[in-house]
Amino acid sequence: MRILYDHQVFSLQNAGGASRYYYELMRSLAGASEVHTEVWLGINDTVYPFRQLSRAQTHVVSWGRFLQRGRWRYIANEALGNAWAPFAGRLDVYHPTLYRQMPLVRARRVVATHHDCTHERFPNLFSNAKQNIRAKRRLYAEADAIICVSESSRRDLLQFYDVDRAKTRVIHHGLHRLPGSATAAAALRAHVPAEYLLFVGSRAAYKNFNNLLRAFRATGLHKSMLLLVVGGGPLTSGERALAEELEVAPSLVVFPQLADTLLAEAYAAARLLVYPSWWEGFGFPPLEAMAAGCPALVSNTSCLPEICRDAPFYFNPQDPGSLEAMLLEATNDEPARRRAQERGTQVAAQYSWQKCGDETLALYRECQ
Known about the structure:
- By secondary structure, the protein is of the alpha/beta class.
- Helix content is about 40%, strand content about 15%.
- The model has no long low-confidence stretch (mean pLDDT about 95).
């Protein structure tokens, strides 16, 4: 079986949940004897070590960074990929990594992955919402099978798109514990010397970061703790202005991008991970925190109760009072924190990338 994964998500991001998903999926399939995988990354500087996957049955096309991630890299890789596609021959499965197909790829079947419906639910927050939705509609109509990363994401898919439920399949992402190190732990302590709350990932408006800043101030936790903000790039001018207005700026520590070893130590040493997002398709940070023994405070919306089950503290992200009350409980109630830590490690242990890969391979076989 010949499978193609394309450049799309890797042209637009160097790290993140979607690119981690495709890397782990390809890694889990690399050992399958009957699978021959073509990975077309093109120009990229992804943090994931794809070159280590190269072997007789896995062919990785990857060049170093000649262009910054974004539109121009995407256009260049699309042109190069379509120039290469006619020479690749006929493939069994084409699994695009985003919502378009390279038009010159020849494949017997197309499998798509549906992550979430944030563009559909919050179109006013995205300048490219209409474009994204059009691309999804076209891809989902043409796909032979659609993987949904949670039951919640499948409900969203069926709500917003005219898709036959029979061609959908829920396959949860996997998880592996991030590798920490003593060197990374020492580096973290040097930059974050006090007890801290942790926020990880994108700060797009639907991630609800600004309301976390407000709750941080309203609870008075900014007086005794820091808020460590990891990933998502530097603070925007609006975020900086709000932090100054709330007088919490001195209590913020921002790491715009962080290696996995440092992220592992950030989870392990945090008092609490706060994940206030209004809507998610899966959500990696709560599971990563739970695997590291860090209690998590999580929105009670979308997929999060399905994925995190009864392990975290939950709050209503639409109610600022709920976030403030649960922030105080999750930082101060030691018996509840111990229960969250114990249950969290149990829940996180049930997610495996090998299981995700096996279920995805089974779907590929069904599509043949």
